[in-house]
Amino acid sequence: MQLIFTKLLWSMLMVTGLIGSIIGFVLPIIPGIPFLILMIYSLKKISPAFHRWLSKTRLAEWLRKHQPTLAKWLVG
């Protein structure tokens, strides 16, 4: 029961991050990047397969090189 509730909570945060990032990229007054980070972090918590894939992308390598703190938090 707790596992289902946890996945549901992370899924709701992921959808909120997706909607917020889309609105943030359309409307310049709302920042979209924090919502995008929330979406990626939530998706990482939901799917271990996504986390493995994310760790191998060029974006992850770039983050490790230029933003090591953010990369450790998102990818590591």
TrEMBL record:
It comes from the Bacteria. Keywords: Membrane, Transmembrane, Transmembrane helix. The chain crosses the membrane at residues 12-43. This is DUF454 family protein.
